[in-house]
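User: Here's a protein and a ligand (zinc ion). What would the complex look like?
Assistant: Let me lay out the input and then the predicted complex.
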Amino acid sequence: MLLSLSWLKRYTDLPDDASEISAALTSLGFEVEAVQVRGTGIEGVVVGEVRACAKHPEADKLSVCRVFDGVEEVPVVCGAPNVAAGQKVLFARVGAVLPGDFKIKKANLRGQESFGMICAEDELGLGESHDGILVLSASSVPGTTLQEIPGLCDTTFEISVTPNRPDALGHLGVARELAARFGKELRLPELPLAESGAAAESFVTMKVEDAASTPRYIGRVINGVKVGPSPEWLVHALKSIGKKSINNVVDCTNFALMEWGQPSHAFDLDTLAGKTVVVRKATAGESLVTLDGETRTLKAADFVIADAEKALVLAGVMGGTVSGVTEKTVNVFLEVAYFDPRAVRAQARRHTLSSDSSHRFERGVDPLVTARVSDYLAALIASTCGGSVATGRLEFTADLHPVTPRVVSLRPARAAKLLGVPLDAARVKSLLEGLEVRFVEEDGDTLRFAIPGFRNDLEREVDLIEELARRLDYNTIPAVLPALPLKPVDLPPAEEQARALRGTLRDLGLSEALSLRFMSKRALGNLNLAPEDSRNDFVPLKNPISEEWELLPTTPLPALLHALERNQNMQEHDVRLFEIGRAFYRAEKTGPRSTGVREEPVLGIALMGEWKESSWSARKQPVDFTRLKGVVENMLERVRVDLEWVAGVGSKAGFLHPIESATLVDPVSGDVVGVLGTLHPKVQAAFGLKLPVVVAEIYPLALLTAPHRPLKFQAYATHPASARDVNLVVGEAMRHGDLLAVVPKNVAYLNATRLNSVYRGKGVPEGHKALHYTFTYRHMERALTDEEVGTSHAQVTAALAAADGVVIK
Amino acid sequence: MDSNNVNQDLESLKIRLLADLDTCDQGGGDGLEELKVRYLGKKGEIYGLMRGMGALPADQRPAFGQMVNTLRDLAEERFAVLESRAAEQAIAAKLSASTVDPTLPGTRSELGHLHPLTVVRDDTIDFFRGMGFELAEAPEVDHEWYNFEALNIPPEHPARDMHDTFYVDEGVVMRTHTSNVQVHYLLGHEPGPVRMLAPGCVYRVDNDASHAPMFQQVECLVIDENISFSHLKGVMLLWAEHVFGKGTKLRVRPSYFPFTEPSAEVDVSCSLCGGAGCRLCKHTGWIEVGGCGSVDPAVLTQVGWDPERWTGFAFGFGIDRIALLKYGIPNIGLLTRNEAGFLRQF
Ligand SMILES: [Zn+2]
């Protein structure tokens, strides 16, 4: 909502300092988003009279004018197409200063001397228009300074008005708030209404058929108006808040709109078929061309203002192109109504159309002021545009429409308790009085107040308590800590676990990512999933921002892979990301407020490039499956969970390499806790990744329910261990895990088995690999003898040697 | 054997020994080992004297033995001095021979990083947990009854214009605020004192330099029998001082949220300029950080709590916004681009 300071000053006395007003507006709950002071930084600009104007002899687009500035007549070269002799214009004399410290100097333009400049709006910071020079009214007096011209140099405040305060959508409402804040009187606009001639109903028939959406409808007839340009004060008033002047009648309705916050509509009475105004439901398929030039096909739910034949206005939202006031209009039917907020809102939404009118009707205009505005506006039109107001109003009032103020009770003690400030009845009454909330009666501890019509939002005691807080100024309410019992609070287990996972992965050198929780069908399609994969049970958005973000994610991996690609394109190749994201799956609806969506956290890990130390000397190794596996093992070690590792993922994760992958399984429940592996080359290519990538997807909830090893002290051996090395040559098909499985579980003193190296190449036959193991034997309480170690180790080597295809070197 | 001869031998040995030690010392300790073997070795000259003692008359032997021992002690003492000097020199030589360049960069591990929003989120949780707030959560995809109706925002209410809502189904929305947690929490508990904290992701159909379609909020809810608006200000001030530093001032402006009344927006004094006005605070001296208010009785009634008995306050703020302010991040979009250059800063 744009407010003009000079407009506000019509209704109350305000401080000169705009920043004081701005601060007051903000503290009253009308946040000031911008303050614009027009006409500052301008010196030496006055009203000039163009006494002569001729084409420049050397330049088609320039004119040479003689301008009288109140003191002297000087030659001025002007480039505006609309300059003409006889105009009153804004003239910057030589020596004038324009916004931006732009100084006007004597100039010579193609051989013609120019002593000053005729200004356009934007050059003076008075508006955005650069269509041509600003032409003032003929009555302007040459030599008058810019600052003295009424309405031109104004201060405007752009305020945001919350939906509960439609009263602040008019200058009067805001002036009322400021008057109360500054302790000044509010001057309501009054115009004497002179009715004459025949009764209004002799000129027009008015019917309201849809009382539910139109509980109050008032018509007035003004005959014999002279439609034409508006007087300067009206043009300036509208211009000051960025509204264009259309004609004097329409401008009057717009003025009342921005003054009272009450929309109205002026019809050309003589164009109304049957001289009839009907408020009715639309007939389905009926159409109407609204003022924005759109042809609107009406729906049966719509309600319209019509004449005897056709719909004219989409009620409460926008007028039509026929029946409006034009230069030819002589007799006017003036509508001032209270339309039902919900009905207007539904109507505006049905037509995805919003207007100054619908914005106010939706939020609720003053239901008690309709007649008053109707009288006021009729008088304004008659006094501005000529004509006479026919006697009486045409009125409709629905049975349930309020005609007296609502009464709301308030207990001062309750207010004091809720706000935490002392308040007694007298204080409460005086605070509310400033908002025209008038004390009616007292009943024990309860006070009753009459709520003015413009404050529809005040319905309950607590609403009045908020008004008290606003009148006090929220900032005067003390900040006090509540006295509450000390209470230790543990983190929920899931949160505790999330912290442990994040912390461990961070310690391992991974960086935490955060992705928008959206996904595209294309990205999902690029994951090479089996048709039955639950990641295909996605939840689409009905109103996505873009195709990239059309679904809710069923896995955090696409977002992480996109992030890797983005980094790759920035020459960041060694990137290690993890994220505890969220997956959303379609599910059965289980009740009336069930969403049909199941959501759970999912941990994603994605590593790319080389696992390098950030040192010049350190070794670099490309990330691979074993590196990822190590990360996951470390993470599980930290959270003290032992899981079963199953090689491969089957069809559970089509985005993984069929061999370089593993499934993590809860050994007790058998639930899958996660999958990990090298990204399938097809998926890698589909995501535009140049380097191999390894990824993991782990389900924290499943991890949480998996068996955790309790943290209990364990006795540990202090005597030295005995190590024995074994070198084996096996076929490629023989896996480390297979070899470990061969070693008997019950070998005495066998404490640890370590793989030292895997070697392929010289000395090892094609299709084979050499493995170097160290087996460690130790006793908890003493050193072992060579013989004891030898006996145990012999069992190990014998078992290995007995395995198919194992050669011990 | 003549005792004189023996004594002369001892005397000349002593003179030779001292001369050799001097020479060796002057030569920087060269040949010290050999010298020691020659004089003090098992087959050395000093033991040679001992062995020659047998030729002396028995009565002279003790005195002669005494003299040889004295000479041996002297020799051992002098050799020890030279040896320790030589050892010192050897260490000094070894140290000075090092080629390590101490100005080389250290061999570091590459550290990982937590996302800045996690840092702010965890800090917020710990701050409120320390004051007895318990963590709660609710679905991110929720039925609109929890997101709107139960929070006193009926269908077709203009307040819904304040929320550009993502819909996933008829009546099912991406929650537009963490206030839905209030509803789930209150429905799930018997009426009683509440101190609740709910951080989480929320969604709006919005995407520009200062708005992201997904962002994170924290919701705080306190309910008890005597909670007032001034308590809300007290707790918020404590939090503001925690986040923005001691001495931070609070400005509370009337606003409108259907689920709180009185409702307010909260500004804190600009931590960059201290309130004088700068670019960060758009020259107002204040920075908006969140919304708050006393719990609207309609909300309590909806969930079956008696609003005459129970009163409370709620406040919510954007974790993203706090992180942007705290770290001076210029654009909210940077938070979710996951670029290495960004992530490694935190
Ligand atoms: Zn600042």
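Summary: Chain A touches chain B through 95 residues (CB under 8 Å).
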